[in-house]
Amino acid sequence: MSDQPTTSALRHPLSWLTERLGTGRSEGTRVPVRDWVSVKPGESPRWVGFDVAFAWVVLGLLSLGLVMVYSASIQLPDNPKFDNYAPTHFFLRHLMSIALAGIAAIVTLSVPMRTWEKAAPWLFVISLVLLIAVLMPFIGKVVNKSRRWIPLGIMNFQPSELAKLAMVMYAANYMVRKMDVKESFARAVLPMAIALGVVGLLLLAEPDMGAFIVIAVIATGILFLGGVNGRMFLLISAVLIGAFVLIITFSDVRRERILAYIHPWDEKYAQGKGYQLTHSLIAFGRGEIFGQGLGSSVEKLHYLPEAHTDFLLAVIGEELGLVGVVAVIAAFFWLVRRTFIIGRQAIALDRVFSGLTAQGIGLWMGGQAFINMGVNLGVLPTKGLTLPLMSYGGSAILLSCIALAVVFRVDMENRQMMRGGRT
Asked: Which residue ranges does UniProt annotate as crossing the membrane (predicted)?
């Protein structure tokens, strides 16, 4: 099929945007015309393609994560804490999580964005209810002194993961509703600040400061992208930074983590709060350029705690070296950039909710990946956040795949509108 727009497409009011975005020969902002079949004048074109590169990057990260989770967890049964587990326990559970996430993603693809827009406030309310429920002793499960999980049999569900998706959609829906008053602090910013404060208090009660940081980045980022006044954005950022400083100042545990981050090799911290960081850095040092080889990590042999979850990147660094780490960073950079491009296309098509949702999901994936990588590399203080799409964790994999399926849906509807169809 020719890469030139069809006659019916040229007559469509949005054909000028199709021409500006191009025919998909180079930049990611361009949409391939070959993904559409010609139709009779007046009919909506049928969608027959998708963003293949986006799909391959997601599948690549999931596949590499599965391999590295197996590599990082295969020795755990040697620990008395896991002596009842088979060497493949975490691998099989992670594989099951990916399978469930794949099914959920396929279902999500069939849900129009207008349905998500209507459901956004209710999704936010459901996430608040679950964040309250997990704090109840007879519902929430305590692991490592944190009450963050609700046992569901096939997996331990983490409400904070749903809260991330809920905040993305609620903030996007909120900005659409407040578009006419976005210059007013009291009417546009204050209600969102209160909602974020409620979520923050519930997360800190678990405690889960890492999830709160990610959700705060999502909320403030969408406010900024939605066009909130720059001075108000700076004020919000200053208040959030001040709140985090106060939280750290009045919490002995968090203050010790900061001191351990600054002086990880100090005798006072090397065997305590700085233990994970020092062994993570040792893992990266052993990996050098090309790594020790898949399965050859020494640090995963009960030296580096949580090697299959929070510190999976350190195992990648030790086994696959600088090359492997750079490849992972490049994949996440491309993925986040692509979500922002899809969001920008949607906004250009006057689909503001869809555009802000896609960009909010990009903020979520990019922000959480940046924090996890920063912690592993010693750039940021130690914080319990998984690497999206890769680290072991059922609810994290599930919600990440659902979120990216929403981005796929936004892209599908963008393409349909640019070729004369209706969403």
From this structure: 47-70, 91-113, 119-139, 185-203, 209-226, 233-251, 311-336, 348-371, 391-410
